[in-house]
Design brief:
The complex is a heterodimer of chains A (227) and B (276).
Chain A: H1 5-22, H2 24-44, H3 49-72, H4 77-81, H5 84-90, H6 95-124, H7 132-157, H8 163-190, H9 196-225
Helix pairs in contact in A: 1-6, 2-3, 2-6, 3-6, 3-7, 3-8, 6-7, 6-9, 7-8, 7-9, 8-9
Chain B: H1 3-27, H2 32-37, H3 40-72, H4 86-112, H5 116-148, H6 156-177, H7 181-213, H8 228-260, H9 265-274
Helix pairs in contact in B: 3-8, 4-5, 4-7, 4-8, 5-6, 5-8, 6-7
Classes of the chains: A mainly alpha (227), B mainly alpha (276).
Chain lengths: 227, 276
């Protein structure tokens, strides 16, 4: 029986989600990491809310980038080590789609918890609750881009033993535009100004990465798996 | 090390490159030069021959350009003598970007057509680009100290140049992390291509970011309003930098080919020719 592409995506995502539920601590760790990083800033800078509010958008975005990075390291590793990925490459199914499904699952496990908790974490650094809808929307869009860019980097470095520092070096410079526009949106929203400009640019970037990212992931993974 | 299978693959690829070159006239001579150029022995010899033609004009032009820029050109009305650093700063900045594009094209050629010379060129040229970026940043901050009163300003061009340096460093780090040269080549190629798609996005987002966060930048580095007496040394320096980069690329490419083809038979004959 032929498996349709949609079924294939569903199967990959279902498997990854089930694996994640069985190791729930791996899902919670990036989230705790996110909260801890945000907590560090008031301790390092100042407990005065007015001062924190000025840097709050940047704090939330940097924390989101780093915790997305933490979860990336293990994205493909288990599959490459036990040979699953090799079978995927050989299976004749579109590898770009399989890897893209994994990236989407990564976003659901590492991005979505941040998106949901962001309004609460944001209050720690003085982001008012009235901004919460914008914050949730912009983080959802931005972390999607982060997951795709990160998955390309993870596919490139998965076969390396000391890949995690390298992964940060490769991925973070490429993620700078997301940081700039994401933080800008939050900053504008705090000051009650319209956010459509940078938000639209973020959406455009997400669409670009959605269309080209899976191809780059597949090319990178083919190089990492063959030896 | 896996030198043994490598060498076999190399000699096989040599023969295919040569047979391709021989077979090309039948399919059309238009791509003959391409197949010839992509064979390592030919590229090794050609880049060796071209090198002095790049190097000596570069050095002569650089001497004239520096004399013109540092001595003949009048001091700027506002910036006094400090503006003279642009004769090094701007060529380095422009070339650092161009070298990245050349690197990405070489990487794409290597990845798509499996041409070994593309990989070798991308590997050879990356440190040149990284060094130009460092040069641009260093001269930029030396210029910034008397002009803006600070070593570093979050000015869009300096900032995107800094990100450029990170991209080069990431590229070289990825290349160095693989033990196997062929995998290092192809992984680094993918990164270079992903990077080149992202470079314009980074550049424009940084410009947008700084234009929102600070007043008009002090930088007046581009040359539209430059007097002819100031401009001609700049043109010479730009040419000199390009030629010098080409000469260094020839050198580095030859070294890279030597490293990669160390077990190939043509290299032994080549060395015999060189050392009578």
């Amino acid at each position: 029986m032929q498996t349709s592409l949609l079924q294939l995506t569903g199967l990959v995502m279902e498997r990854d989600l089930r694996l994640a539920i069985r190791h729930l601590d791996q899902v919670i760790q990036p989230l705790v990491f996110f909260v801890i990083i945000v907590t560090l800033f008031p301790l390092a800078i100042s407990p005065v809310m007015e001062e924190l509010r000025k840097i709050a958008p940047g704090v939330v975005w940097v924390a989101a980038m780093l915790s997305s990075l933490i979860a990336l390291e293990s994205l493909f590793r288990a599959d490459v080590e036990d040979g699953t990925m090799e079978q995927w490459v050989l299976s004749g199914q579109p590898l770009s789609l399989l890897l893209f499904s994994k990236a989407v699952t990564h976003w659901m496990l590492a991005g979505l918890p941040l998106v949901i908790t962001a309004p609460i974490v944001g209050t720690l650094v003085g982001i008012p609750l009235s901004v919460a809808p914008t914050l949730v929307a912009v983080l959802a869009i931005g972390t999607g881009s982060l997951s795709i860019l990160g998955a390309i980097g993870a596919a490139l470095t998965v076969s390396l033993r000391r890949g995690s520092a390298l992964l940060a070096l490769l991925v973070l410079p490429l993620e700078i535009p997301v940081l700039i526009f994401g933080a800008r949106v939050v900053d504008l929203a705090i000051h009650g100004e319209p956010v459509t400009g940078p938000l639209n640019l973020l959406i455009a970037m997400l669409l670009l990465f959605l269309s080209l990212g899976p191809l780059a992931m597949a090319a990178a993974m083919k190089i990492s798996v063959e030896s | 090390m896996s030198s043994h299978p490598d060498s076999r693959a190399d000699s096989r690829a040599d023969s295919t490159a040569e047979s391709q070159a021989a077979a090309a006239p039948r399919t059309g001579t238009r791509w003959l030069w391409f197949h010839k150029l992509s064979s390592p022995p030919y590229a090794f010899r050609t880049s060796g021959k071209l090198r002095p033609w790049f190097l000596w004009p570069a050095l002569i032009l650089m001497a004239i350009g520096l004399y013109g820029g540092l001595v003949l050109a009048p001091a700027d009305y506002q910036q006094k003598d400090a503006f003279r650093i642009i004769y090094v700063h701007v060529p380095a900045g422009i070339l650092s970007l161009q070298v990245y594009i050349v690197m990405a094209i070489a990487a794409a050629v290597g990845l798509i057509w499996r041409i070994k010379l593309g990989h070798a060129l991308a590997a050879a040229i990356a440190p040149i680009g990284a060094w130009l970026t460092v040069l641009c940043l260093a001269t930029g901050s030396i210029y910034g100290k008397p002009m803006w009163g600070t070593w570093w300003e979050w000015e869009p061009r300096l900032t995107s140049e800094l990100i450029m340096l990170f991209l080069y460093l990431g590229y070289m780090a990825l290349r160095n992390s693989f033990d196997d040269v062929q995998r290092a080549d192809r992984a680094a190629d993918v990164l270079a291509i992903v990077g080149v798609v992202n470079v314009p996005i980074v550049k424009y987002s940084v410009e947008w970011w700084t234009s929102l966060h600070q007043g008009p930048t002090f930088s007046k580095l581009d040359a539209p309003s430059m007097a002819a007496s100031m401009a001609w040394p700049w043109v010479l320096m730009m040419l000199a930098f390009m030629l010098y980069c080409a000469a260094v690329t020839c050198d580095r490419l030859r070294t890279e080919i030597l490293k990669r083809e160390r077990n190939a038979s043509w290299l032994g004959e080549q060395l015999k020719e060189l050392k009578p």
